[in-house]
Structure formats: structure tokens, C-alpha cells
Design a protein that fits this description.
The protein is mostly beta strands. The chain folds into three domains: 101 residues, Immunoglobulin-like (Sandwich); 76 residues, Immunoglobulin-like (Sandwich); 240 residues, Sandwich (Jelly Rolls), CATH 2.60.120. 4% of the residues lie in helices and 46% in strands. The strands form six sheets. Strands 15, 17, 18, 19, 20, 23, 28, 29, 30 and 32 form a ten-stranded mixed beta sheet that branches. Strands 16, 21, 22, 24, 25, 26, 27 and 31 form an eight-stranded antiparallel beta sheet that branches.
Length: 431
């Protein structure tokens, strides 16, 4: 083994980066500030005396390279930099450090901002930087690349940071400024546009949107239905019909079948206006819901993932619908929400919706102006505001369970159906 190592070192020596006369190793280099458009480029040349098998440059700006005889380096900022060349042979090593001075800043990132005269919720951003290869604006949870100027939209009062990050010759720098918005935009909802919808107009359920979750596990609430992938959901007359059916009179797990449809990993959303038009089933023991869960439930679990119950209904409380949020800080029986009287929820279609922003979740019935409940923690934390991440939709009818079956189940009511005319998602165009 020792003979092999010696032979390998001899071979390495024969491939030395700098082959000269057999003299003591002495690290040396020269450098020159390049002329032309920029004095911020420096060319370094290795003029080491003696033979070596490895060289390493340290350019004093956090970057290193190895085995380069001649190399150019870009220094975007004025200052003094300690540059070191270290060389290594089999028997010895040496290094040399020199200070180079860069006289001028070359990568200068700057911008101006001006609040629009016609709408104080819009801010015009103009890049005033020196020549850049590319740039990225960051504001209000948005990133915009290589656009100049940019009109930034801030719908709510507050002070917001705006960042411009510039890139040149593989190096980046950024500047941050703040803007103060003095009012909420009264036209905020008018900026929304339809980004996804299912009108249930086809011949069958669109499996590009939906997945059937199946089983009779109780679903964490001691529910009695067995969710199936066929026989309990269909498209008819331009509507989705979810139907709960009775199998037997035992009132046990599996005595009923139903459907639970989710958009998990297919259609997920963060913020927007979500609206579902539906007509509800009736009778003691029935428990339909239109709701959302955090798409990260598989990694963080419930309730840490967050849950938005756009509409829940329990048949033993007729003509009352419920809107609720569940979080790590308040869930289950201690969840935050409200109950809303709605005399025709079983007989007529109604719109159940939310307007969800980074500030709040507003629940409404029939029209966004008819707000029934607002969830808006004054101080948002990870435990009370998991609603800054994508969520998916769930449409289902449960039977029995801790809440739905609190007053038993009336087996004479079946079958019972929830009819859904559409589901629509709107999001702001510039937000």
C-alpha cells in the first residue's frame, strides 16, 4: 500500500499546476485592475516559484477557487480586500497575501417610489440602479422579475417594505424602502378575477379537480358513514349531487354510505374569494360540510394545518348554518366562529363564501357584502394563523358523529342529498 501511495504522489507531481526549476516553493502572484467600462474587475496571475500540486485562491470576498494560473474576479463594491494565494507541494506549502483597493462602487441598487394620484393604494416603482443584468422586485408577498417600472398594489392600510434586488456579473445586492398606505381600498373586491371554477356541467365528475376519499374509519369524529367512490356522487342537471344512503337500521359504523370529495394536491389556493352555491339536506343525524384544510396536513397534522369551515350544517338544528376556523390555538369545541339563521337553507340554493386575505378571513352568505363573521387575530402567530399557506376544498355529507349525531339519527330521512351548483375561486389580478 505504501508503494502505491508514493507512486500516486509522483504522478500528481508530474501534473503540477506550475512546473518550474527545482527551487524552494515560494507563493507569488501579480494583479491588475482591468481598464475599460469598469475598474472593478481584477486579473490575478500566479507567478509562484517552485513546483506544486495544488493552488488555492481566496479573494477576500468569501469566494475561493483552486488550480487557476490566471483568473479574473469582479468586486462590485469599493473597499480593501485581502487576497491570498496558497500553494502546496508534497513536502511543503506556502502562501502570500496582498491587499487590493477597489476605488468605486459598481453595483449600486436604488429605486424611487411614488403613490399614484388616482388611487393611494397603488405605488409606482422605478429602478434607478446602475446597469444591471437582471432585477427582482419583492413587495406584499409578490415577486416581479425584470420589469421596470412596476405598479405595486397594497389594498390595506399599513407600512410595507419594498425590496429591489439587482444582479450583475453573478453578484447581487439589494435595497429596501418602505411605503405608508393610509386607507383600505374600497374597490378591493373589484380587482378579483376568476382563477378556477367547477360548474359541474359535464357528463361526469372531473377527476382532474377531485379525489374521492373513502372508508369507514369514523374520520376523527365517530361518524358512521362509509365513504365510497361510486354510487354516492353524480352530476345531474348541471349540479353535483352528493347523497347519503342507509344500508341497514343498526346505526353503526357502515350503516350508511356517502361521499367525500377533495381537491387535495390538485386544486389548492392561498388567499382569494371562494364561493360555493349549494342546497342542503335535512333531518336529524345528517352533517353536510363545505370546508377547506391546509395542504400540509400530512406533515404537520390537524389542527396545526388550519381548517376553514365555509359552511357546516347539523340536521337537528334546522335553519342554522355555521362558519368556523380551527387552529392550533383554538379547535374542536373551542374553535372560533359563528352560527347564522338561514330559514331556507334546505329549500333553496344559497352562496356560501369567504374573502381570505393575509389580514383576515371574512365569511359571507349570498353576497360578499353580507358578512356573517370575520376571523382576524390582532397579533398573528403560527398557532392562531396557519392561513398563509395553500388549502384544499372538501365537500361531504357525514352521518352521526360527535356533533352531527348529538341527538341521534332518524333513519326515516334517507336518502339525503346536498346539491352544489358551482364552486368558484377569485383572486386579485395585481395582488
Amino acid at each position: 500500500m505504501r508503494v502505491i501511495v508514493i507512486l500516486a504522489l509522483v504522478l500528481l507531481t508530474s501534473c503540477a499546476c506550475n512546473k518550474k526549476d527545482n527551487k524552494p516553493l515560494s507563493a507569488e502572484f501579480s494583479y491588475k485592475l482591468l481598464s475599460g467600462d469598469s475598474t472593478n474587475f481584477v486579473r490575478f496571475t500566479d507567478i509562484t516559484r517552485g513546483d506544486y500540486i495544488l493552488s488555492e485562491w481566496n479573494f477576500g470576498d468569501g469566494t475561493k477557487v483552486t488550480n487557476k494560473v490566471s483568473v479574473s474576479r469582479y468586486y462590485p463594491f469599493a473597499g480593501e480586500y485581502q487576497v491570498t494565494l496558497a500553494v502546496y507541494s508534497i513536502a511543503e506549502s506556502d502562501s502570500n497575501t496582498k491587499t487590493i483597493s477597489i476605488p468605486l462602487n459598481d453595483l449600486i441598487v436604488d429605486f424611487s417610489l411614488a403613490i399614484a394620484d388616482t388611487n393611494v393604494n397603488y405605488v409606482r416603482l422605478v429602478n434607478n440602479s446602475s446597469s444591471l443584468d437582471s432585477l427582482t422586485w419583492s413587495f406584499n408577498n409578490r415577486s416581479v422579475r425584470n420589469e421596470d417600472p412596476v405598479m405595486a398594489y397594497f389594498p390595506f392600510t399599513g407600512t410595507y417594505p419594498i425590496t429591489l434586488k439587482g444582479f450583475k456579473n453573478g453578484v447581487s445586492a439589494e435595497t429596501v424602502k418602505s411605503v405608508n398606505i393610509v386607507r383600505n381600498d374600497p374597490g378591493f373586491l373589484k380587482t378579483f378575477t376568476l382563477v378556477w371554477n367547477d360548474e359541474f356541467d359535464g357528463s361526469g365528475i372531473d377527476m382532474n379537480n377531485w379525489t374521492f376519499e373513502t372508508g369507514a374509519s369514523g374520520w376523527g369524529n365517530n361518524e358512521l358513514q362509509n365513504y365510497t367512490s361510486s354510487g354516492n356522487a353524480e352530476i345531474a342537471d348541471g349540479k353535483l349531487i352528493i347523497t347519503a344512503r342507509k344500508v341497514n337500521d343498526l346505526k353503526a359504523v357502515g350503516s350508511y354510505t356517502s361521499a367525500r370529495m377533495v381537491t387535495r394536491n390538485k386544486r389548492t389556493f392561498t388567499y382569494g374569494r371562494m364561493e360555493i352555491r349549494a342546497k342542503l339536506p335535512s333531518g336529524t343525524g345528517i352533517w353536510p360540510a363545505i370546508w377547506m384544510l391546509g395542504n400540509n396536513i400530512g406533515s404537520v397534522g390537524w389542527p396545526k394545518c388550519g381548517e376553514i369551515d365555509i359552511m357546516e350544517y347539523v340536521g337537528y338544528m334546522p335553519n342554522t348554518v355555521h362558519a368556523t376556523t380551527h387552529t392550533e390555538s383554538a379547535s374542536g369545541g373551542n374553535a372560533t366562529g359563528t352560527s347564522i339563521p338561514l330559514a331556507t337553507c334546505e329549500e333553496e340554493f344559497h352562496n356560501y363564501g369567504i374573502v381570505w386575505t393575509e389580514r383576515y378571513i371574512q365569511f359571507y352568505i349570498d353576497d360578499p357584502s353580507n358578512i356573517t363573521f370575520t376571523y382576524q387575530p390582532p397579533v398573528k402567530t403560527e398557532s392562531n394563523w396557519p392561513f398563509n399557506k395553500p388549502q384544499f376544498f372538501i365537500l361531504n355529507i357525514a352521518v352521526g358523529g360527535n356533533w352531527g349525531g348529538l341527538q341521534g339519527i332518524d333513519n326515516s330521512i334517507f336518502p339525503q342529498s346536498m346539491e352544489i351548483d358551482y364552486i368558484r375561486v377569485y383572486q386579485p389580478i395585481n395582488y
